[in-house]
Amino acid sequence: MTKDIITENFIIKAIKKVPTQRWVAVGILFVLVLVISIANPLFLRWNNIIGITQQVAAMGIIALGAMVVIITGGIDLSSGNGLAMAGVLAGVLYLRTGENIAVLILGAIVGGLVLGIINGFLITKSNLKPFVATLATMALAQGMTLLISEGQLAFLTHPVTYMIGGGNILGFLSIPFAIFLVMCLITSIILNRTKFGTYIYAMGGNEEAAHYVGINITKYKWLTYIYAGFTTGVAALIAICRVGQIAPNLQGSFLLDGIAAAIIGGTSPAGGKGTVLGTLLGVLILGVISNALTFMNVSSTAQTAVKGAIILLAILIDALFNLRKSG
Amino acid sequence: MKKRGLLLFLAVVMISLALVGCSGGEEPGDETGGNDETGDKIVVGMSMIDYTNPGFIGIKTGADKAAEDYDIELIWKGCEGNLDKQIDVIRGFIQQGVDIIMVDSVDVNGLVSVVNEATDAGVKVLAIGSPIPGKDNYNAIYPDYVDAKFAARVIGHIYEGQEGTIGLIVGSPGNLVSDNRQRGFEDGLAEFENLKLVTGLGNWDPNQAMTAAEDIIRSNDDLLHIHVIQDGMSYGVLRAVQNSGKNIPMSSNDGDPEALDNFEAGYYILENLNGAERIGYWFVALCHFIANDYPMDKTQVNVLYKVMSDELKEMVIEKGLDEVDGVKMQIVSLEEARELGSNYQEEFGPEKFEPTNSGQ
For A94-98, which contacts have Cβ atoms below 8 Å and span 24 or more sequence positions? Predict the structure, then answer.
């Protein structure tokens, strides 16, 4: 009896800790799921839920990197092309080393990290605006992707690539999504339990003030972009393993969806605000929207516009609740 | 000072890499600036939609071989699917004084004006893939609409008498090739009331195509078949089909070697053979004849081959499906397709090839 009361209190306290803004995102997700499942009951099937979690994993990891950078008041436009570059780099090294799976994993992560290091260098050492610096590295990554891959495609058939891209744990948790959750946990620890995390929020809230209180802006901003590069590398690994091939045209909509997921999840484009839970919800909302377009048989010509409109609506609802809260 | 030097070094490296990545061929120098009477090399400016599609590499490989065989210099420029950029690229080629501009159009109507500018300036233009309705340009086309309509009609007859859904994975709406292939497939399948068509957006990206196919598979228990308008996307779709554990036959378009392997493995039951390398070679071979004012039709149509099993071929011929909108289809076996895909140097080479000339 006492144990039950303690548990109940714990849950209530935990729920109370969740900011109103997160409940708005939960509400949007709930309404979407309700409407879609009424339109097509197959939507709620277990294999579809698992499928959505598989589909959003790589984009979700990109969103985590985007969120961290946006909290500092920056932006990383290179993650989409960076994903393709890290993917082909990993794939080419993997094939050249006789399908060595460790090389594939390391290649993707190192590819992403190098991009992050270059981004951080350009932004902190040459004082380029993040928009300009990452726009340039976006083009660089695209060129490098073509140079490395020579436009060719190759297939990944190693059992471990199947596992990373489409395996599951105990039949209910897809491995790509599990990796995403681990990345959520790591990002959450960095943001909430480390000095680095505190500085990330401080730099985005007021960079000048952060500088005056003695924070080494150059060091920590550089580290932020390196972390974003790391997320790009991990996302690249999942993306190439999921689709089972190394192709130069893999960047797709990762960049825009990643940034959109972070913003839908409440990350402030002005910097200083953003949470892992919010981004997780943003990622799920985007995944459900993309999935729903097919389940509701929206024509291919209208899909991009409908998706854009729903994202805009979600952001507006979120902004409206924020306005009411602050007003 | 040290920091500035490092920055300068990095900037130089980045610019060099970007230049290497963006250029695909040599810029024409003063010495090679046109096919004048002294017998200099023919210079062809190649304005491509983008460089990221694996199909492009096939076209480039074939084109480079033709350039060697026909002694032509190629200058490659991409435009990332941007019409304004493509117009700038074409104007740049006019300024450079190339002999021929080959255009893989982002938007055929949007390019009419700049193509007319080129032909007025004495630069010949060859539109590839889809015809540009300009005043005096040449066109090298492969009939996307008819091809897709043929595929849909064959698929419709395969599933005759069955109620179910057919999935279609398209590229990106607004892209001419994607739109023609989608429209052709939709028109072809419209004849079959028993079949429902569901379309997914692949955006020329195997990952997005895979996601679209997964969603179609999970949302339609009665899915009978998936048709993909491009081989590059079809490999992602095949992965989705395999992951689903269902036996869903597929068909695709382009005739890439990997797709022919999938046909052999039984995953694809119908494949349209353009052969990226093959058509790349054909385009440049045509440039040789255009530059030399060889008498030829302004619009050249590539013979397309359909790859299918003998049983399916029997059905197609029996039902009279091998002709669509007046275009007769050439049906070949897998072995023949592989041979056609690799023997294009003989098919379109200097020893044998002559463009069509109906005297019109």
Answer: A94/A156, A95/A154, A95/A246
Report the 10 Å Cβ neighbour count for A118. 23
Q: pLDDT (tens digit, 0 to 9) for every residue of chain A, 327 residues total?
A: 556 666 666 666 655 656 666 777 788 888 888 888 888 888 889 889 999 999 999 999 999 999 999 999 999 999 999 999 999 999 999 999 999 999 999 999 999 999 999 999 999 998 899 999 999 999 999 889 888 887 677 899 899 999 999 888 887 899 999 999 999 999 999 999 999 999 999 999 888 999 999 999 999 999 999 999 999 999 999 999 999 998 887 877 899 999 999 998 889 888 898 999 999 999 999 899 888 888 888 887 788 888 888 778 877 876 777 676 665
Sign for the pseudo-dihedral over CA of B72, B78, B81, B85: negative
Alpha-carbon distance A259 to nearest alpha carbon in chain B (angstroms): 17
- A218 close to B (CB below 8 A): no
Residues of B in contact with A247 (CB under 8 A): 54, 206, 232
Domains of chain B, with CATH numbers? 23-142+278-301 (3.40.50.2300), 144-273+304-337 (3.40.50.2300)
ipTM of this model? 0.85
Considering only alpha carbons, which residue of chain B is nearest residue A304? Answer: B201
